[in-house]
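Just scan this pair:

***
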Amino acid sequence: MLLSKALLAASRRPALRRVVTGTPATRRVVDRFVAGESLADALSAVRALAADGIRATLDHLGEDITTRAEAERSRDAYLAALDGLAGLGLGDGAEVSVKLSAFGQALPDGHEIAVDLVRPVVEAATAIGTTVTLDMEDSRTIDSTLAAVAELRKEHPGTGAVLQAMLLRTEDDAKALAVTGSRVRLVKGAYDEAPAVAHQKKKDVDAAYARCLEILMAGPGYPMVGSHDPAMVALAHELAAQHSRAADSWEVQMLYGIRPDEQRRLAAAGTRVRAYVPYGVDWYAYFMRRLAERPANVAFFLRSLRTTS
């Protein structure tokens, strides 16, 4: 837990960012988690996943922007991504995920700006038969993000939400979102949160995840099980069977590059699997959160540095 907190803090340190991004050996590890820096790289990854029967959600990396012009560039990047996905003809087999911080959420009047800029992205997704999921960030953004989901769903009911099991409020949010047509991705959470708002021990986060998963699986919505934990994936299958869910009424989501063999195995066995595929030049914060999530990722990183130095 202490290592995770240190890495999450490091994700916001500009000096360390320059060191990490300027180290050639880092690229070898980044390539495990990030599909590439260009849209062409991302679309190539989506095609490869589709060939293995795995769906995809594209994430154009970039967050915590400071000007409306940057936010507009995020919008344009996603419109280009959806245009690229349209050419693949995968329908809802390839969607996009967006962080509202990349659309200006933290600017003055940021909620209105973010909704205004993300709306054309949602409209473009609907036009090609796919969807948008609004990623959840730190706890300060939850109310704004869920309000944006509710507003966008009025005309685009497939707009997805994300809930983080580590947060104390999430069980209530899961109950509110477990309704017909609601698409909800449940994850454990990857932000450094205070004890007043979040569980601090892994066992408590795991227990909260299981409770929230039960709520979503029992409801009439579309649960998206964001986990690499074999126990949670097994629980998801048990709950799906318990609630007589059809195979196309829920899915497992895993990060690009994490347990790829298991992703392929699950897909071949008939489980809907979707990989979260990030791409873009602004990969540092995403990369540091991936290191923070699992000690094995840090060990892999350090081994790679040794072998390439």
